[in-house]
TrEMBL record, chains A, B, C, D, E, F:
Transmembrane segments: none annotated. Its cofactor is Zn(2+). The lineage of its organism: Archaea, Methanobacteriati, Methanobacteriota, Stenosarchaea group, Halobacteria. Keywords: Hydrolase, Metal-binding, Zinc. One of its GO terms (molecular function) is hydrolase activity, acting on carbon-nitrogen (but not peptide) bonds, in linear amides. It comes from Halapricum salinum. This is Creatininase family protein. GO terms for biological process: riboflavin biosynthetic process.
Amino acid sequence: MYLADEAWPDLESYFETESLALVPLGSTEQHGPHLPEGTDHLIAEALAREAADRTGYLCTPTINVGVSSHHRQFHGTMWANAPAFRDYVESITRNLTYHGIDRVIYVNAHGGNVQHLREVGRRLRDSGDAYAIEWMWDESIPDLVDDLFEQNGPHGGPKETAMIQHIAGELVHDDRLADARDGGLSAFDEFTGRKHGARTFYDAIDNSANGVFGDQTDATAEKGQQLFEAASDQLVRLSEWLADQPFESLVAKRHV
Amino acid sequence: MYLADEAWPDLESYFETESLALVPLGSTEQHGPHLPEGTDHLIAEALAREAADRTGYLCTPTINVGVSSHHRQFHGTMWANAPAFRDYVESITRNLTYHGIDRVIYVNAHGGNVQHLREVGRRLRDSGDAYAIEWMWDESIPDLVDDLFEQNGPHGGPKETAMIQHIAGELVHDDRLADARDGGLSAFDEFTGRKHGARTFYDAIDNSANGVFGDQTDATAEKGQQLFEAASDQLVRLSEWLADQPFESLVAKRHV
Amino acid sequence: MYLADEAWPDLESYFETESLALVPLGSTEQHGPHLPEGTDHLIAEALAREAADRTGYLCTPTINVGVSSHHRQFHGTMWANAPAFRDYVESITRNLTYHGIDRVIYVNAHGGNVQHLREVGRRLRDSGDAYAIEWMWDESIPDLVDDLFEQNGPHGGPKETAMIQHIAGELVHDDRLADARDGGLSAFDEFTGRKHGARTFYDAIDNSANGVFGDQTDATAEKGQQLFEAASDQLVRLSEWLADQPFESLVAKRHV
Amino acid sequence: MYLADEAWPDLESYFETESLALVPLGSTEQHGPHLPEGTDHLIAEALAREAADRTGYLCTPTINVGVSSHHRQFHGTMWANAPAFRDYVESITRNLTYHGIDRVIYVNAHGGNVQHLREVGRRLRDSGDAYAIEWMWDESIPDLVDDLFEQNGPHGGPKETAMIQHIAGELVHDDRLADARDGGLSAFDEFTGRKHGARTFYDAIDNSANGVFGDQTDATAEKGQQLFEAASDQLVRLSEWLADQPFESLVAKRHV
Amino acid sequence: MYLADEAWPDLESYFETESLALVPLGSTEQHGPHLPEGTDHLIAEALAREAADRTGYLCTPTINVGVSSHHRQFHGTMWANAPAFRDYVESITRNLTYHGIDRVIYVNAHGGNVQHLREVGRRLRDSGDAYAIEWMWDESIPDLVDDLFEQNGPHGGPKETAMIQHIAGELVHDDRLADARDGGLSAFDEFTGRKHGARTFYDAIDNSANGVFGDQTDATAEKGQQLFEAASDQLVRLSEWLADQPFESLVAKRHV
Amino acid sequence: MYLADEAWPDLESYFETESLALVPLGSTEQHGPHLPEGTDHLIAEALAREAADRTGYLCTPTINVGVSSHHRQFHGTMWANAPAFRDYVESITRNLTYHGIDRVIYVNAHGGNVQHLREVGRRLRDSGDAYAIEWMWDESIPDLVDDLFEQNGPHGGPKETAMIQHIAGELVHDDRLADARDGGLSAFDEFTGRKHGARTFYDAIDNSANGVFGDQTDATAEKGQQLFEAASDQLVRLSEWLADQPFESLVAKRHV
């Protein structure tokens, strides 16, 4: 059920019987020369609405701009500063509880939002108002993501490319995939850019000239569909699991 | 040009030659028994993208949740508290200046956002960073809005009904128009709900049992199209006017 | 009853029997070449104390500096930034509830304060602590204000001129009234300074070279007295109405 | 020169030639059974206006409500929380610099404001925007204050009583002076209420049942006049001294 | 009992039976040419741990950096801005109440922290969460401090010198004591640097070229030991007194 | 060089020639039944001071309390809320730049601080004031940490146990190592406690009854020494690398 499409009387029975909401969040930021800046919010919204369609749980409109200052050197990247983002998301979530929502899944497709959504979730749980958790699609299907591509990467790489090829293929510049790989950093791992254990970089451009990490030349819409279906399955199951929990089991445990 | 659809290299020439952005903002809130909760953000986004398409100016993704606590008694209304909303919008706008944007039109379709967008615009202008103005579609075509309908109203009334009939007709419950009128406050003016000059009400429900103001029974998709085209024209002209101004003429005047 | 004149034991019976306070707020800002910068706080204080005298309700000292950055280009205009003003007023109001006050009238004479007082009032009502409303004198007697003068105006115009001629005539430069009109913008309406529906101006100086709006050449102390008495009457009635309401009827309504 | 009484064109020459402002601040809080709650702001305003009259320096309107939560147990005490008070005063002061003010004397008559005004002054000096200092009238004439009365006290005592007898004698309940003394704590010194070096009290009521400290039975209007004149003299001299300093000598010194 | 040395199960019985914590706070700032920058936090920690050892009350780790911007012109002075310091201390203290702590002694050795700790203490008391008081060692033994030295001083003077000679003698440059005195301001009293009653200085360097106040040439480790023992005694007694109070007697009194 | 031990004149030459500071940060929180609550700040301080001793770079005092609310169910855990912690650390770091510091290593031993230190570092870098990076000791020697122990764990496990056995052996309850393992969660990996990709837990107690993760029965002081030396080596090299960089290479890169 998509909240924004409904008239208010048609939401009454939902709030009487359910207390879960899916809130999609992404970013609007550079994703290399081949992908649209909306990549993350397109993915988050598509997955959240798919899961809502399949389960009947409530999906809210998408928060399209997140914490992306680390991509700001590339034209068009939009971002909110972290404190403003956190307070905006917290405020929206807390106000949802006015209607009886007490559990939220942040359907997220932007790594830069993760820690901030976790912090907001903690505030809401510590105050006892709601239980909100962050879910990032590729974290839910790590094996499939690993299996499908030769050389993955955390940003603008093959997994995101395949997803957009599937969701909004017309927005992918398929003729730039090799350029995307060659102009970026195809082989990125946890320790790239570290010195003696410290992460010394802050911005994507510190490691990649065109903002791309990974090799997207083996991305296809078919693989995107596989990812989409597998991730949707996970989100459906997570929603069902979460809806089934008694609220008491979700709030913070008591002092020993 | 829609920012979220573009890959970053394709935005470079825009930022080299232009410094204007259209930022659509709406709300997700009750709009009576006949209209979807997304009414305001649907209208804002449609108008902003239309004007961007016709002019080539840049349109950003939409901020879908605004300041709507005055509608919170109705199922599904979402809102951010005013300080959080202002800081989020300010942060996003200020960060756009990093790419060279120095003038912004907030394409707004929610009355509850107006004062907050004006406040953000003042902050940006007072600090000399950008000139941002709020534009609300119905304020740009007051005569047409007056002429088309018997009994207008500020919220959920015929003007919004007609617009959604035109933009997303499938989301309008045409069979509930009379109910919407009868269950709400059809005749609302500036002084309704005032006592001896003071506005004594805070929430929509203080004046209208179903959240509706106005009589939407004479709304049609055709009238919606008229409104849409007329308002788009105004937004196009405003964009062109604003793009033409020297920045010096937009910043705050000097002390006498 | 004027709070600042009383010793604390003499306030005890008031707080035992009443829960209403009148809080005057104005501004200290340019009001053209003919009026003192204190115009707004002088008016607010005079009206609040008159109503308190006539009814016995409690009047607090005046908050003399408000949100006036839009007049800052003229010598002497003082202002607090909007967030600081809101927090100061909210804090003072919230702390009044410690003594049992649960309803407040912000007796306001500065248009620039209106939205901020409304926002503070909403915070207090949403949290259930107090019901505070903004009252602006000229909004309470719109017909009389219209009838008395040829060409009104929102700032420094005939209505404010007449009020100060009545309240503190020695502070009016009667010999500058024609200059005030000729150097300013005498004919101002809602759409002055708008472009295609957008309010493009932010500061008074954007529309008026001397900060004046309206034609004050037909202002007199006698008309000021009429305004003062009529507005006082309204404030007295508003106070009585508000004192009579059960608190339950003032707080926010419940969810449908 | 009193800012609020002037029309803006009449302030121009002041700002061209001077850069000093006197800002009176007080409180509205219990001052025992014999004195009005406005005691502190009455004193601050009277002294600031007197010094402005004698020197020609600019005096602004008074900030009537300060940081007085330590008096809140007594009817009518008003207060702003400390962060809100600081931000409001800082904002007003910082905005005065827009007109060329670069030095400010906070003419203060409330002990509870001192540390907050010092903190605001530090912020303004550290940022290089203005030099603002707190001046409290009784600190300027300690010997006279000591000599005139048998048993002084920091709050509601003879020095404040005498001042109000002089400034606004009609507001003093002369028939309650002995009661004020007997119901309060007449002999208060630095170590009253301390335990082993720690100040264990927070509120006036912790030490005084009626909120009074000191013995006011020997206060008279004549002594009040002496105090007023002596303190005014000090403020005049301070103003003249401050106006004479080069701004460079007022800002923070450089790193060694 | 030193919290940081204990494993959590070994703290259980303490929290079951006691609700007091000692929190040492100091500064890291210049203390003249002869004393280490850690002087204040060394003293605070030594005293707090001594009192905890002698009484069994809980001592937490030390907050080593306080509000010291008034010493910033001297190499190495560290400081947090006042709002950040207050919020950090408040947050830590408030969170201690989660374990049952409801009374706290801030064992403080830096004058610049006093007002901020008082403000935090007030916040905690006004909200009813905890009773926290500031204790500064030299305020607990004023007579001894006066008796031991010819010429005291508030910063870098003989009392602090003697304390560090006792606590960490190896960090004192005994060969620089005369230089310390001669390069600073040996005779400082309340009115030094005042003009007509106003404190016109903000930084230590405004009054002392080397940051020292007082004459430390008669400081010795033996005198330091006397001070340490006497102050420890006071802190022990204060702790015992505080632990003995019923919580109801510590919270704010009710409205009259 | 340890800042707190030095008198200010002895720091002058350092600031003239160097611009690097090591700032140790840890936590005070439960570390299982066998380790002291100070474990993290003890480790951070020991490593930072060792590296400072070996290189001559400046080490500041330690920030002993961090972001640990996820351990609050266990007696004695102290924490600051995340915004207060960030602002305190940011303020201290920013103020260090007053002396010429432009690069900082946060020598950190608490996982819960990482994201907050990264956020502070980003603020400082984005504003161009300083380049600050977070370094966590075990991240610098991942292979050694893996090799030394059978079953590692992120908190209270063998690596931390061995470190404290080496640094402050008297604080380790060696007789509780098996209990620590058996009462906690010995086998913890990235996906423990996740559901369908989402991290559903917030607190340590959600996964471990005694707060321990890992098997510490093979921890020894000798292994601790190995870890300490290896990590110190890394920190020394990082310090030298960082000191060698031109500041221009550390600040944020320009827009493409």
